[in-house]
Specification:
The complex is a heterodimer of chains A (593) and B (190). Chain A is α/β, with parallel strands linked by helices and 593 residues long. In chain A, the strands form 6 sheets. A 7-stranded mixed β-sheet of chain A has the order 3-2-4-5-7-6-12, with helices on both faces. Chain A has a 5-stranded mixed β-sheet with strand order 9-11-10-13-14, sandwiched between helices. A 5-stranded parallel β-sheet of chain A has the order 15-16-17-19-18, with helices on both faces. In chain A, β21 and β22 form a beta hairpin. In chain A, α1 runs parallel beside α7, α7 runs antiparallel to α11 and α16 packs across α20. Helices cover 42% and strands 17% of the residues of chain B. Chain B contains 8 helices and 6 strands, in the order βαβββαβααβαααα. In chain B, strands 2-3-1-4-5-6 form a 6-stranded mixed β-sheet, with helices on both faces. In chain B, α5 crosses α6 and α6 crosses α8. The chains are: A alpha/beta (593), B alpha/beta (190). Chains A and B meet through β8, α12, α15 and β21 of A and α1, β2, α2, α3 and α4 of B. β8 of chain A pairs antiparallel with β2 of chain B.
Chain lengths: 593, 190
């Protein structure tokens, strides 16, 4: 079976990641514009569509942030077209402003938000349940439970979005996005939507006078939404008896397996779409004397069941199911992991790669006396790990500069530095820089520019000169942008030149105002060491400064206590040459950097 | 069938998982895999679950239900021992990667024999394969250990090595295709 293929005719099959299945669903639905900001676990949706944009007759873009991505989609749908907007769960927080206004304006074409939740926080700063956003906005939410449904539900989401005139959320989780399964293709919409904006300010311009009427209209259509959901037949009841189980998403599969293993039977309500209709709830409730609700996220279905069925419902609120993490077969069966005696595997956290320019810059920042570093989201967050311990805060995308500013405004005496990546800077950091200059913060902003959006899979952004489709893009200039924000003290350096980096940091820290240091060196994935120069160690004094202060993964302590280089991992960056206080590390053959 | 593939980010676990899952599909079975993406790639612990049959869509192998495991690194097999039972076949790459805290002397890396003894308490079907060494000896590329391990696993799979050679060939870049097929053969003879 072909892996990762999303173009093809009806009835063809392929082995697809859940995200690829979503991409295929968008192609079948005749989506005209797909926009996203990278965010695990959703990144591969637009990543995949970008590769086939031309053949799929789709405009595919990485937008600078999720709010922009959704507003782009809103423009498409207001003009009658079909738009898919993708992001991870916290991305919807960034896009919440247009999202909550869209519930009021509604749309003419189809607008679907594919949101990747992350129960268990495999790659996120928090857990949050996107189904609540669907309820908050009083719109429709679809919840696929496997990879095939991910494709089918996305396609259907566009039909129902157009029928009901509102955006539709498709709630995905990590186990759908990053699982692979067989997908059978469906037919592709023959004619794309006609895109032509129709003048109607009473719908599209939400001044209060118009907005009040629109909101009443939305409230009045809630029954229509649950009828439309009922017609989808995505909420199914199987089995019978007195013991009821309610679940949604991948948890449905875990429930089936767990109950089979335990030899228990139940009447199972699989929720694939919200809002649930009264009919569905009553059909399920009929004859049931106790209900267990299993769901990942908040007790959304549980609270709904309690409202209709009273206190026969067990779940998170009764302490029977954990609030956090994945609700797996083992959690449902309460299978304890016994046997903690004997040797255990050491902790293995993810780290900055060998040769990473962020390691060099953080090392330089520490050497220059940095005491408080307000960090941000990206690979460079990993600077928090020992031995660097170079990142002191990380809250959400673009927060670093603002939090550093806040500390200054409140009277923090230590010079605070903010460390932010290039993609994060374009996302929302630039607003923070403007704010810092305007409100006169005295902080050092370090922009870690490695020419990519690395952590999520090396996607391009406006400073890289490439688009989501691989085509060339107008390349924005970081230095120009920083100057345009009114910054007067700016220094651009190569972080692998550690003495230069230390000097730049010291000068920046002394400036009375906002200073910016642009640390510019491409990510190893973007530009592996082309010269393949490799350092070697001779005359190691066993001081272990390189391990204890720097700890590149390619440095290892060998028999006898000296340090050696693992050439399977070494990237040849040469940072260790500067770090060694005894000049025991040099490039082979005396090559200079 | 429930299979776990685990190792350190960067060892190519995802690559062999794809070939394996596709092998089951070519064999006419329902199969899915569930992967670790993102953060774990940077030298963190990675695990992929491959499941076939009725519960393939219940992506995560329940504890104690693993039929076969490939561990690209010894301590990773230990980390995921909860999935094993006396019936599991465990193929372990005889290779150690010291994580950060061990290098900083803040944690101890367990003794090799102690780890293997601990696993032997759970199952007699331990197959220690010097895959990284074989990869260096045969191809001068330690990264090919993953395909060698897949070859070793083939001895307990319900489909032929030929099917696996096809699915590996399908996803191999041109310049690695022949050596990947050869690596499968090398592993299958261990």
């Amino acid at each position: 079976m072909e892996i990762g293929k999303v173009l093809g005719e009806e009835h063809q099959e392929a082995l697809l990641l859940g995200n690829e299945a979503v991409a295929r669903g968008a192609i079948e639905a005749g989506v005209q514009v797909a926009s996203a900001y990278p965010g695990t676990p959703s990144s591969e949706i637009v990543g995949t569509l970008g590769k086939v944009a031309h053949d799929a007759h789709m405009h595919v873009q990485w937008s600078v942030n999720e709010k922009v991505a959704l507003e782009v989609g809103a423009g498409v749908a207001m003009a009658g077209g079909r738009a898919l907007v993708c992001m991870k769960h916290v991305g919807l927080n960034v896009a919440a402003d247009p999202f909550m206004s869209l519930m009021n304006t509604g749309i003419k074409g189809g607008l679907v938000l594919a949101i990747g939740d992350d129960p268990g926080m495999h790659s996120s700063q928090n857990e949050q349940d996107t189904r609540i956003y669907g309820i908050f906005a009083k719109i429709i939410t679809l919840i696929p439970s496997n990879v095939q449904e991910a494709k089918d539900f996305i396609k259907k989401a566009f039909d129902i979005s157009e029928k009901c005139g509102v955006p539709v959320i498709v709630r995905l989780t990590t186990r759908i996005c990053h699982s692979r399964g067989k997908v059978t293709f469906g037919s592709t919409k023959e004619e794309p939507n006609v895109v032509e904006f129709g003048k109607d300010p009473t719908q599209w311009v939400i001044i209060p006078a118009y907005a009040r009427g629109l909101y009443k209209k939305l409230l009045g259509r809630q029954n229509m939404f649950s009828s439309a959901v009922e017609e989808l037949q995505y909420n199914t009841i199987e089995g019978d008896g007195e013991f009821g189980v309610v679940c949604s998403g991948v948890v449905y599969n875990y429930v089936k397996e767990a109950y089979e293993r335990a030899g228990c039977s139940a009447k199972i309500l699989k929720v694939g779409a919200l809002p649930l209709s009264e009919n569905t709830i009553h059909s399920f409730k009929d004859g049931v004397t106790s209900i267990f609700v299993y769901e990942e996220g908040d007790p959304v279905l549980e609270d709904l069941m309690v409202r209709h069925c009273g206190n026969i419902v067990k779940g998170k609120r009764t302490g029977d199911v954990p609030w956090d993490g994945e609700i797996t077969v083992d959690v449902i069966l309460k299978t304890e992991n016994t046997c903690e005696t004997g040797p255990t595997a050491p902790t293995r956290p993810p780290l900055l790669c060998s040769g990473c320019s962020h390691r060099a810059m953080y090392y330089a920042m520490k050497r220059s006396g940095a005491k408080v570093v307000s960090g941000d989201i990206g690979c460079y967050t990993l600077g928090v790990m020992p031995p660097l311990l170079a990142v002191d805060t990380c809250l959400c995308m673009g927060a670093s500069i603002n939090m550093a500013s806040g500390m200054y405004f409140a009277g923090e005496k230590t010079r605070v530095a903010a460390a932010i990546g290039d993609s994060t800077f374009i996302h929302t950091g630039v607003n923070g820089l403007m704010n810092a200059v305007y409100n006169d913060a005295h902080i050092t902003v370090v922009i870690l520019d490695n020419s990519t959006t690395a952590m999520t899979g090396h996607q391009p952004h406006p400073l890289t000169g490439k688009k989501a489709t691989g085509e060339d893009a107008k390349q924005l200039n970081l230095l120009d942008i920083v100057k345009a924000c009114g910054v007067e003290h700016i220094k651009t350096i190569n972080p692998h030149n550690i003495p230069e980096a230390i000097k730049a940091m010291k000068e920046a820290n002394e400036y009375e105002g906002v200073s910016v240091v642009i640390a510019q060196a491409p990510c190893n994935f973007v530009d592996p060491n082309p010269s393949k120069k490799q350092p070697s160690i001779d005359g190691c004094k066993k001081c272990l400064v390189c391990i204890n202060k720097f700890c590149c993964p390619a440095l290892k302590v060998v028999e006898g206590g000296t340090v050696d280089i693992d050439y399977g991992l070494c990237n040849g960056c040469g940072d260790c040459i500067e770090v060694c206080p005894h000049n025991a590390i040099q490039y082979k053959d005396g090559d200079e950097e | 069938m429930n299979i776990i593939l685990c190792g350190v980010g960067g060892q190519g676990v995802l690559f062999i998982a794809q070939a394996l899952t596709n092998g089951f599909l070519e064999n006419g079975e329902i199969a899915t895999s569930s992967e670790t993406h993102g953060m774990a790639q940077r030298g963190g612990s990675v695990i992929t679950h491959v499941r076939t049959g009725d519960h393939a869509n219940s992506h995560l192998v329940p504890t104690g239900q693993c039929d076969a495991m490939i561990a690209m690194e010894i301590s990773e097999a230990l980390r995921y021992k909860c999935y094993l039972s006396e019936n599991s076949h465990v193929f372990i790459n005889d290779y150690e990667v010291y994580p950060l805290l061990v290098n900083l002397k803040k944690q101890k890396y367990p003794e090799r024999q102690a780890m293997l003894d601990e696993l032997a308490k759970i199952t007699k079907n331990l197959h220690i394969v010097p895959a990284t060494q074989l990869a260096i000896d045969n191809f001068n590329k330690p990264i090919m250990a993953n395909v060698i391990m897949l070859g070793a696993l083939s001895t307990v799979l319900p489909f032929s090595l030929e099917t696996l050679k096809k699915t590996i060939a399908d996803i191999s870049p041109d310049r690695f295709r022949d050596s990947n097929i050869e690596a499968l053969r090398v592993g299958s003879e261990k």
